[in-house]
Task: structure prediction
Amino acid sequence: VIMGNPPYNAKQQNYNYQNSNRPYPQIDDRIKETYIKAGTAQNQIVVYDMYTRFIRWATERLHDNGILAFVSNNSFLEGQAFDGFRKIIAKEFNQIYVVNLKGNAHASGEERKRQAGNVFNDQIRVGVAIYFLVKIKGQKGCRIYYNEVPDYTTAREKQAYLLENKIEKLKFDHIIP
Result:
């Protein structure tokens, strides 16, 4: 099992924040060979986000059996730039479980209201997801299971949702992209 909560600083432009992203040329090459190559979006620079780097790094180390468990930005769920990422993880894993906690403060209007509070008490502006990527040697194909908090859920309500709902008790929808 590999668990992670990668940093949330993908598009950091100013390195004076003393939190600059380190270069990872081998991982970036693998991202280019996998997620970028399978993608169709014109601008895929966000696919080099630290959380996708961390997932690529972890995937390379998992081998035939195992689980990657992450808390990260949820932009991979719907972002056009992440179409290649979604295709590749569906090829590399047999089961994917996603809990979408929403909370994207970059949305506007009614969509912003639906996204509501961020699970980290509004300390970050991106939506958040918890997800489990499972590899099982000998199993073919990928089954994707999705769960999300209701629209308009506050940060405190999202935290309570996580406290009250163990993964084995959550109701997941089996989705087919």
In short: The chain has a mean pLDDT of 88. The CA atoms of residues 66 and 135 lie 5 Å apart.
